[in-house]
Amino acid sequence: MQLRYHTPRMWPPEMLALLMPVADVRKGSRHPLAWQGGDYLTELRATWRADPRRFDLLSDTLVLGCPETLPTFAAVFRALGREVDDGDGLG
Description:
By secondary structure, the chain is of the alpha/beta class. Helix content is about 25%, strand content about 10%. The protein is globular and about 35 Å long. The two termini are about 15 Å apart.
């Protein structure tokens, strides 16, 4: 899974989704793992408790996020044993 910061110069997530699986986890997105504005780790834990299947992302998924979401997202998915490509140096 590739994690990238979304920038205004990028194609909109809806257009990228025509080419590859996309998970937009920025605040305001309709994706089930998107940030709702509170503590993101707490939100992800609540989502996991409600339906762990929401974390079943394909290995070639492009995850678009922001500085508030991507480091937490990467840490959670690494803890779940998933391979994460954080080409932007998210740690």
